[in-house]
Specification:
Length: 358
């Protein structure tokens, strides 16, 4: 029996690895434009990190889909080559080859449990924090060959006549702002004699960039307005409208501790997030017998039909994901996090039972 297990284990591992690498490469390439866009002002390494973090965030989904496709294709090939027929004719239960897929599914579930509870929250947190580091680097290494500075997505645009080498201040400036700094200003465009950007360490908050305006003049009212200063939150520069920390950014042990201590802002959603991570980790184990049965049923239909049939459990799973998120809003019941597995089990049990008893 172990030789039979080893035979299918090897083929499953190779097929799953190739499928996952191809899918991950496709996702990585599709996210390059987003990484370049979000790393405006940074370097090539910043763009690569942002792209990699966004791609890693989809790791649980890619592993689940790649494993299901590999399982279906492996046992469709075995069925078309009459291997499964020979196994049944030899008096060996079809549960024996199916157990190879289940073993790989259990192995992936254990790995995905660690990934979902610890690795993915860290990736989800860091992919939005690279932006702040990019902005800090951008202001330390501004492109001074031109005469204008655009502060990314905040809308501020500074043009200057010259820059002092000793102090680093900009002189003879015109500043465009999305809204006036003071109600006395009649325009969003002001003239500034000197603009200073103190080092980040000297700012009151390390996450803010302090901008000091000296000698401000309103060109419409034609009067002196004095000196002003304002802060640009660096953490908000990389995404429109800013972003608050979410439960998806927190590891499961810390999230559970916050719920048990009563300090979480939304304990119902936190528990739902925990259940959802557990459901995602169980998916390879649940999909393994379904993939085996789909592969055996597609013996006379071909591999393309087998791939189309494998979409059914995926549609059920992601329908449960979407429905669970909607029900959480309406019912405030965290147990809807198990809904994808609750929908997949009733669909899979009759299929597996019929195919194994055939």
């Amino acid at each position: 029996m172990w030789r039979l297990h080893r035979y299918y284990l090897k083929e499953l591992a190779v097929n799953a690895s190739i499928t996952f690498l191809v899918m991950f490469a496709v996702v990585l390439i599709s996210l390059i434009s987003r990484g370049i866009q979000r790393s405006e002002g940074g370097g090539l390494l910043d763009a690569a990190l942002i792209t990699l973090f966004f791609a890693l965030d989809s790791l649980p989904h890619l592993l689940t889909i790649a494993f299901l496709i590999a399982t279906v294709m492996t046992f469709t090939r075995a069925a078309q080559d009459r291997e499964l027929v020979a196994i049944r004719a030899a008096g060996i239960s079809p549960r024996v080859p199916m157990m190879s897929a289940v073993l790989v599914g259990i192995f992936l579930s254990v790995g995905m449990s660690f990934t979902n509870h610890y690795l993915i929250p860290e990736v989800h947190f860091r992919k939005y924090r690279v932006i702040a580091d990019v902005v800090r680097s951008a202001f330390r290494n501004l492109n001074l060959g031109g005469d204008r500075i655009k502060i990314l997505e905040t809308g501020y645009l500074l043009t200057f006549r010259d820059r002092e080498q000793e102090t680093g201040d900009y002189v003879g400036c015109t500043l465009y702002m999305p809204r006036p700094l003071d109600r006395r200003m009649k325009s969003s465009i002001i003239y500034v004699d000197r603009v200073s950007l103190p080092p980040l360490a000297e700012s009151a908050a390390d996450s803010d960039l302090l901008v000091e305006l000296r000698g401000v003049r309103d060109p419409i009212a034609d009067r002196e307005l004095g000196d002003f200063s304002f802060r640009v939150p660096l953490d908000e520069l990389g995404s429109r409208g800013g972003r608050m920390d979410k439960d998806e950014d927190v590891r499961s042990d810390q999230l559970l501790a916050e719920v048990m201590r009563g300090v979480n802002r939304n304990p119902v959603r936190a528990v739902y997030t925990l259940f959802r991570r557990c459901t995602m980790a169980l998916m390879p184990t649940l999909l393994a017998p379904i993939g085996f049965c789909i592969g055996e049923m597609a013996r006379f239909r071909g591999r393309v039909i087998a791939l189309l049939m494998s979409l059914l459990p995926l549609l059920v799973f992601y329908f449960g994901e979407v429905l669970g998120a909607r029900l959480l809003i309406s019912t405030q019941n965290p147990w809807v996090g198990w809904l994808p597995a609750a929908l997949l089990i009733p669909v899979g049990i009759p299929v597996v039972w019929r195919q194994l008893k055939r």
